[in-house]
Amino acid sequence: MVEDDIFRALADPTRRAIFEKLAAGSMNASALRQGMAISQPAMSQHLAVLRGAGLVREARQGRFVNYDVDPAGLALIAQWLAKYRAYWPARVDALEAVLKEMDQ
Amino acid sequence: MVEDDIFRALADPTRRAIFEKLAAGSMNASALRQGMAISQPAMSQHLAVLRGAGLVREARQGRFVNYDVDPAGLALIAQWLAKYRAYWPARVDALEAVLKEMDQ
DNA sequence: GAAACAGATAAGCAGACGCTTATGTGAAGC
DNA sequence: GCTTCACATAAGCGTCTGCTTATCTGTTTC
């Protein structure tokens, strides 16, 4: 299951921290490691998990590998969350209604 | 961390299935077990995890315990997700703008 | 109050997770 | 082409998960 990978990836605080850093701007693995008390292999493994979950994308640039947030993963979470919109605060529900009007 | 609990709770497919069932309507543990090939202790343990994450609430009713979706947990996910709205599809972003107008 | 029932908790165990150290791979620079 | 650098992968290890069976707690019913 794809959702398994996404939620499992985000269950680790270190991985969420990495993701948060990437959300502020794309970076390579070394830059990500700055100020994070984490070994190089650990970072590589975390990035592999995030990538496998569709939360992060990679792009080789010479001998660096640049990572950035993959909207696909976030979209899946939003989609999952939308299934339970009945339980969201009324304010968010009202927003949904407006969205539908906008689409028409 | 609260988010640890939430994402960890949802990382398990069985727990997501339980949550999905509860989203369709509140139920006691026995009813939840119907058609789920899961032992009574396992169900109890899963519900404890979901409850600990703020995704589910319980209410004693005689010798039954009724469970239902706790909006608090979902709200936290929505809040977490909102931090990365920059990466959502443009359509959702437009929606956010409308919401702000509505609030004023 | 004893039996029956809904559910929680305890203990134990196989498998998964996240880390470590060591080594491999691919590109850059001389 | 050899070294250096950025990163990935392999192997091993302690810890955590999710399951099981067995037992306990609390409530209803007679």
TrEMBL record, chains A, B:
Gene: arsR
One Pfam family from the record: HTH_20
HTH arsR-type domain ranges (all copies): 1-89
SUPFAM superfamilies given in the database record: Winged helix' DNA-binding domain (SSF46785)
Name under which the protein is recorded: ArsR family transcriptional regulator
GO molecular function, one term: DNA binding
Organism: Methylobacterium aquaticum
InterPro entries xrefs: ArsR-like_HTH (IPR011991), HTH_ArsR_DNA-bd_dom (IPR001845), HTH_MetalResp_TranReg (IPR051081), WH-like_DNA-bd_sf (IPR036388), WH_DNA-bd_sf (IPR036390)
Matches recorded under Gene3D superfamilies: Winged helix-like DNA-binding domain superfamily/Winged helix DNA-binding domain
GO biological process: response to arsenic-containing substance
Superkingdom in the source lineage: Bacteria
CDD domains found in the cross-reference section: HTH_ARSR
Alphabetized UniProt keyword annotations: Arsenical resistance, DNA-binding, Transcription, Transcription regulation
